[in-house]
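Handout, section 4.2: multi-component inputs.
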Amino acid sequence: MSRCLSERSIDHVVLERSEVAHTWRTERWDSLRLLTPNWQSRRPGFGYRGPDPDGYRTLPEVIDFITAYAQAISAPVRPHTRVTSVRRAEAGYLVRTDQGDWSCRTVVIASGAFNIACVPGVADHVPRSVTTFTTQQYRNPDQLPAGGVLVVGASSSGTQIANEIHRSGRPVTLSVGEHIRAPRMYRGKDLEWWMDAAGILDERYDQVDDIGRARRVPSLQLAGTPDRSTLDLNALTGIGVRLVGRLAGITGSGKAQFAGSLRNICALSDLKMNRLLNLIDEWAQTNGFDRMVEPSHRLPPTAVEEAPPLALDIANGEIRTIIWATGYRPDYSWLELPVFDRKGMVRHDGGVVSFQGVYLMGVPFARRRKSTLIDGAGDDARDLSDHLALYLRQNSA
Amino acid sequence: MAEASSSTNNGVNVAALIEAREALTKAPAAAQFKWRAACEWKDGTHSHSTVEGFYGLGQEQHHKKTFTFDADHPELFASEDKGATPVEYVLVGLASCLTAGIAAVAQYRNIQLRSVTATLEGDMDIQGILGIDDEVRNGFGGIKVTYKIDADAKREDIEALVAQSQKRSAVYDIVTNPTNVTVVVD
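Output:
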């Protein structure tokens, strides 16, 4: 967005609570790699030129990339400037920070959708003998005591963390809620390549049937695996991880209870994945790719044991750690504008907030399916900066 | 959307359901329902239950008539078998909930159903209810539901119907998740 504003000579500042790429520096686990391949991190005028376009950036590489981009575009970043409030002012908005106040005519909210790790209410009943970490607090298996680990949540974060913890010799039980399975490679190409080529990532918010639903769908269960292997539930059960249903409760005696719906949760996920692969196959056929890539195939269904456990004693010492991989929510505690829906999310129409001159970026399906990807920021910023520029022109004094 | 695709008719008014969904999204208080049943002991293990009123959309509501349910145990438990056993009612509740969901989802997805039948089987070790073995639970060890569905759709789409119906089913949720139950004596 900063680049797009600069191109239009729109005077702006980028307020950063700490340093550029702060979240990547301080709030994610060590082994995390970007789940999109290197070639896909295309920013306006700034793409990947290294030797490994199909690889997935490590955390330090992501930090370098974002920092280098900020420098390349000479973004007017004000680091170590924490926004404490944004409110309506006479000629626009008053932005209070711990480094002084700003008044501005427009505000772009680009603080992200993944600021605060969600922890389910049942966490209050976890016995004291069990250490807990959110995905924001977890760094690597060495932090954990020896012994069993319950990982709650089986989307992208949960599966990656379950994988490395189990391989560290701590037996993992994985509590599986709604998730969307996805093969890393399909017909010899990265799944992201297919989704990009077939236009799935470009699908717009005003083209989908039910945007509210599309915005709530969990992100794909993908991992930036160095060997480009698929890290799905079958891969995890293959190394000995045990699957249980969604965590439904923890009793007073320290028994974790799991929903008996694991089979259907996995069936739904397999069906969703196969619909995506059907879409890709159709696109490949229509566009003449069929003979240029490997033949179409389907992954074996997610294997679920005959009677998955419905309860687990987490007070008897068998489980020493619980990892909450139960998603994130945005932190809008500083946003003092009446723009929230009843779930505390900012109401917007493709990133144009219901309050004039306020814009939102980087939240799920803000304008396009790729809105939360690094690769999605460019198109959204171009559209929203168009809108913003027009707003400034129409409202100039 | 559903109105435009009127060639499918499973007897479900999807347009009304979608309208209700939109209305209740704006007025979540009206979405608070209370479902009720009354039960009277007759004799032995025989009881007679009725269902008539419920609460929803902000006010008391009534079924078109009072529905009645006799429950008992079979003769091999030295009962008189004047009705289905309560656990069979649970199977009935699960089956009818999933089946209604299949019809509704099929309508929404423009899939014409010709026949839908389900058979259900719940495994139970009655050492639990008889107090023979404390380690055996009273309830079902597991429930198996088998659907036979004839519809204008591919097998994959039919499987998706059945999966989505489980995802949205109240009774499926009640059976697969813990629920706080408070029983008091007036």
